[in-house]
C-alpha cells in the first residue's frame, strides 16, 4: 500500500488557476469496490426534492474575495448526498468518538450522526466509544440508537465522555478492525483531527474499507480553514452573562473594575467576539496582541484614565493573553501535550489592585469573574444546533459516498469536505492587522499596545504568579 494517500495532497487542476484540494476516496486504494443506489432516492422526505444530490464536480472556493484578473484559487469538495454510495445499509458498522475539551453542541452532533445514519441511510449499528481515543482500547462501547439519543442535545457535555492523551494509533486501529467498524466519526479539535489523520494513514496502510471522518470541534475557534466551529456562538452568547455581571458590579460601586477571564488558549476569538457583542467592555486582551502594564500607552495608564472618565470599567482577558509576562514559567503540559496556562485573570486582577494601592492613585473595587468552564459546559443554542445538524449530516453523506480522510466543515457558508492535512496546518488566530481587531479597538478605544513598550521593562514590580497559584481554581 505504501504511504497513505493523505501524505500526498490530492490536487485537481482546472483552467484559470482552479485547484481542487480533494479528499481521498476508498476507491483510491481499494480496487473494484461495488457501488449502490443511494437509499435517499426512495426516502419520502427527499424523493421530491429537485437536485437533491450534489453534482460530482461541485466545489467551494476557499477565498471568495476576487479581483478582475485573479486566479480562481483553491477549492474544496462540496458536501452532500451522492447518487451512488459505497456501503449497503446493513453493511455499515459506525462508531462515534468525542475527544479533547468540552464544547457546546457535542451531544447534538452525536444525535444527528446517529439519526442521520438511521433515518437517511437505514444504518442500524452505531457504537459510541467511551472516553475519547483511549476508549477504543480501554473502555467499553455503548450502542446508540435514535431512541437513546433523542433528547441529548438539550444537555451540555458529551454523553460519550472525552479525554486528552492516549492516542495509540496501532491499538485504536486494531480495535476498529477487531470490532468490524467501517465508518469512524471523530469529533474533536485540532489535536483530535491530527490523531484522525494518523488513524486514516494506518487504515489505508492496512487496506481496510473504513471511512475516517472528522467533525471539527473547538470552543476556541482555532481550527483553520473553516468559517467557525460549532459551539462558538453559544460560547460568545454565554460569555455575555459574565460580562453583564461584571458590568453591573463595576458600575454599582466607586471606581469599580470588573475583570472577566474567557477561554482561548492560543486564539482570542471568544474574547474578541464577546467584547464586540457586549459594548460594555472597555478593554479586551488576547494572546495575539501582546500588552504591557507600566508607562505611557500601558494598561495601568488606560485603566486610570477610564476610571476618571466613567467611574468604572470592564476588562475581558483571554486565558492565553499575557503569558509571556509571567516572571515564573510553568512548563507543564496536559496529557495531549498542550501547554498548561497560568491564571492570567487572577494575575492581572492582583497587579491592578497592587498598582493602584501602591501608587495611591485612587481606591479601586475590583471583582474578578472566571466563567470559563461554565461557558463550555452549556448546551448549544438554536443556531449552533442547526449548524451541528448540517455538519453531522454532511459527514454521513460523505462517508456513505466513500470519501474518507476528511473533515466536514463550513467554508464560506457552504458545507465542504476538507483534507485532514489542511486542518492540521496550525491554529487559526485573530489577525491583529485585520479589520475585525481594528473594529474592536475602535469600539473599546483601548490602546493597541503597539506604540511603546518602554514601560514593560519593570516587570519585577508585578506579583509573581507562583504566589497567586494557591488561589487558582481552574487548573489542576
Ligand atoms: N499530533 C497528534 N497525533 C495523534 N494524536 C493527537 C495529536 N495531538 C493530539 N492528539 C490526540 O487527540 C486528542 C485530543 O487532543 P487535544 O487534547 O489536543 O484536544 P483538541 O482535539 O485539540 O481539542 P481542544 O483543544 O479544542 O480541547 C487526545 O486524545 C490526543 O492524544
Ligand atoms: O479541559 P481542560 O484540559 O481543562 O482544558 C481547557 C482548555 O480547553 C479549551 O477549552 C479548548 O482547547 C481551552 O480553551 C482551554 O485552555
Ligand atoms: Mg486543541
TrEMBL record:
Activity regulation behaviour: Allosterically activated by AMP.
Record region (Disordered): 451-476
Sites marked Important for substrate specificity: 191
Main location: cytoplasm
Binding annotation for ATP: 101, 164-165, 189-192
Stored InterPro entries: ATP_PFK, PFKA, Phosphofructokinase_dom, PKF_sf, PyroP-dep_PFK_TP0108
Enzyme Commission number: 2.7.1.11
Subcellular location: Cytoplasm
Domain Phosphofructokinase as annotated: residue spans: 94-397
One protein family per Pfam: PFK
GO cellular component terms, semicolon-separated: cytoplasm
One GO-annotated biological process of the protein: fructose 6-phosphate metabolic process
Names of the cofactor(s): Mg(2+)
Residues bound to substrate: 218-220, 263-265, 319, 373-376
Binding site for Mg(2+): 190
Ranges of Basic and acidic residues composition bias in the record: 455-476
Pathway(s) where this gene product acts: Carbohydrate degradation; glycolysis; D-glyceraldehyde 3-phosphate and glycerone phosphate from D-glucose: step 3/4
Similarity-based family: Belongs to the phosphofructokinase type A (PFKA) family. PPi-dependent PFK group II subfamily. Atypical ATP-dependent clade 'X' sub-subfamily.
Subunit structure: Homotetramer.
Record-given protein name: ATP-dependent 6-phosphofructokinase
Naturally occurring in which organism (per UniProt): Lupinus albus
Amino acid at each position: 500500500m505504501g504511504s497513505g494517500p493523505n501524505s500526498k495532497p490530492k490536487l485537481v487542476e482546472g483552467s484559470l488557476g482552479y485547484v481542487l484540494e480533494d479528499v481521498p476516496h476508498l476507491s483510491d486504494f481499494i480496487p473494484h469496490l461495488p457501488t449502490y443506489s443511494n437509499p435517499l432516492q426512495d426516502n419520502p422526505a427527499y424523493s421530491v426534492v429537485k437536485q437533491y444530490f450534489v453534482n460530482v464536480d461541485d466545489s467551494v472556493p476557499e477565498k471568495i474575495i476576487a479581483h478582475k484578473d485573479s486566479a480562481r484559487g483553491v477549492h474544496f469538495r462540496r458536501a452532500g448526498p451522492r447518487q451512488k454510495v459505497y456501503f449497503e445499509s446493513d453493511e455499515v458498522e459506525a462508531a462515534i468518538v468525542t475527544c479533547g475539551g468540552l464544547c457546546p453542541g457535542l451531544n447534538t452532533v452525536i444525535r444527528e450522526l446517529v439519526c442521520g445514519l438511521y433515518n437517511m441511510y437505514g444504518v442500524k449499528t452505531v457504537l459510541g466509544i467511551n472516553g475519547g481515543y483511549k476508549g477504543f482500547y480501554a473502555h467499553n462501547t455503548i450502542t446508540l440508537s435514535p431512541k437513546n439519543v433523542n433528547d441529548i442535545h438539550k444537555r451540555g457535555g458529551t454523553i460519550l465522555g472525552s479525554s486528552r492523551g492516549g492516542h495509540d494509533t496501532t491499538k485504536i486501529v486494531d480495535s476498529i478492525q477487531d470490532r468490524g467498524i467501517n465508518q469512524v466519526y471523530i469529533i474533536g479539535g485540532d489535536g483530535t483531527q491530527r490523531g484522525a489523520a494518523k488513524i486514516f494513514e494506518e487504515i489505508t496502510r492496512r487496506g481496510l474499507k473504513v471511512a475516517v471522518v472528522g467533525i471539527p470541534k473547538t470552543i476556541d475557534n482555532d481550527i483553520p480553514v473553516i468559517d467557525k466551529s460549532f459551539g462558538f456562538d453559544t460560547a460568545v452568547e454565554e460569555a455575555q452573562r459574565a460580562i453583564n455581571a461584571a458590568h453591573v458590579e463595576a458600575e454599582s460601586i466607586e471606581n469599580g473594575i470588573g475583570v472577566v477571564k474567557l477561554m482561548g488558549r492560543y486564539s482570542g476569538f471568544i474574547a474578541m467576539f464577546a467584547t464586540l457583542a457586549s459594548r460594555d467592555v472597555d478593554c479586551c486582551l488576547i494572546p495575539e496582541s501582546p500588552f504591557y502594564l507600566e508607562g505611557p500607552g500601558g494598561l495601568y495608564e488606560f485603566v486610570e484614565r477610564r476610571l476618571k472618565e466613567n467611574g468604572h470599567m470592564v476588562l475581558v482577558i483571554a486565558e492565553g493573553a499575557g503569558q509571556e509576562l509571567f516572571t515564573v514559567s510553568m512548563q507543564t503540559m496536559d496529557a495531549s501535550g498542550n501547554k498548561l496556562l497560568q491564571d492570567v485573570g487572577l494575575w492581572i486582577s492582583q497587579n491592578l489592585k497592587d498598582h493602584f494601592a501602591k501608587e495611591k492613585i485612587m481606591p479601586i473595587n475590583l471583582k474578578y469573574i472566571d466563567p470559563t468552564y461554565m461557558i463550555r459546559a452549556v448546551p448549544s443554542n438554536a443556531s449552533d444546533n442547526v449548524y451541528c445538524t448540517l455538519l453531522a449530516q454532511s459527514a454521513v453523506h460523505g462517508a456513505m459516498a466513500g470519501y474518507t480522510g476528511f473533515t466536514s466543515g463550513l467554508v464560506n457558508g457552504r458545507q465542504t469536505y476538507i483534507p485532514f492535512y489542511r486542518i492540521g496546518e496550525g491554529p487559526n488566530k485573530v489577525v491583529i492587522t485585520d479589520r475585525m481587531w481594528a473594529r474592536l479597538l475602535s469600539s473599546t478605544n483601548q490602546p493597541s499596545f503597539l506604540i511603546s513598550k518602554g514601560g514593560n521593562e519593570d516587570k519585577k514590580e508585578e506579583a509573581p504568579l507562583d504566589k497567586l497559584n494557591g488561589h487558582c481554581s481552574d487548573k489542576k
